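Notebook entry, structure prediction.
Reason for the run: the old model in the group folder had no record of what sequence produced it. Starting over properly, with the input documented here first.
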Amino acid sequence: MKKVRKITMIIVAILLVFASLAIGASARQDSGTITLTITADKNANLQPGDIVTFTVFVKSDYNCIGMRWPIMFQTNVLEMVTESGNIGNVQPLALGMQGASLTSSLGDSSMFISPYTTSNYGCLLVQWTANTFAGNPNYYNKPQGEDCFTFQLRVKPAGTFTNGASSRIIIPTLDYYRDNVFYHQALEDTSDSTSNYTLQTLTVTQSPGYETVTAFNEAPALLKRSEQLDVVVDNELGYLYGFTEMFTDYWYIEDYHNTYLRTTGGAKYTITPNEMGCISTGAVLHLTTADDVPIRDYTFIVFGDLNGDRVVNSDDAAMSMSIQMYALNWMQNMDSYDAKDHPVLFAADVNFDGIYDNGADFSYLIDCGVLYKGYLSQTRTLVNNSPVIPWS
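New structure, fully documented this time:
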């Protein structure tokens, strides 16, 4: 999560600040246009306690020297970060502005009208004022816009919201806020600091107008997608199998694992290919938390692909014979091995009878890899008492 530059939180009546700014300003009915966009550095699979940094993108077509508006957020999932330094500027705006100040208006009833109430929304009140350079005030006139400031909100503690709950963060556009809370002051003559005036009517557009974040209480975990009934996430053995997509005789798990698998609780994963450079038997999925703390590893299994090259062919049949003949170095003490000790053994039991040293598995590999009678079941089920599924 990116850091924001720390400044002191102002817990004062913000209206007084802008009252002083308005001294000497003429009142005009001119309209300016400002576009405000809110984005989050992360907005899905959030967990209790996660802090989310929001960035506000501002476009303006007038010579702004002062701005103020509220930001409303749903409190079913999010809460204020009350520590000082909640809000910060994004360069280069800070070069031309004194800085954005923030006050919490959670208890200020004047900030809330329907549909925004203190029972379901919180409010941040944000203001900027211009500084001066060589005796002249800087101003903000950027029709193309830029990222201007950031603020932070925290996901509420576990047990205070339901799994998968979402919260919206929005800058309201109701007339009440435009007339009573929004404040926009500009320069008519950028070379004359006394030519400032107040835009009493302002067109505020929002694109998209709000940001939405989703949070979960459930623990980080790897699961199959509910529609992929054949996939198995074996938490006892640490194996992944049941991937049924194939193209001719090549398995393309790397093209499909995102379709088959999902994470909960903000977990994420990376995959290390096997020694053949493939995502097949022997490849490893590394499951971590959102902050890269390891949770556990899972090994991919493709039944019949013993050497992990994504192809079931005579090479795999030869490996199966070597297993049965105790010919592989790593199988010298095969009597002490079982499926929990080596993924190749698990992948070699293509007829799923739990036996790795008979001729049945070899014959089925010959049928698929040499005689091309079909392909091997990956769901640990048999068709007509055979793992070989005929080509349709």
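Summary: The longest helix spans residues 314-324.
The old model has been moved to the deprecated folder.
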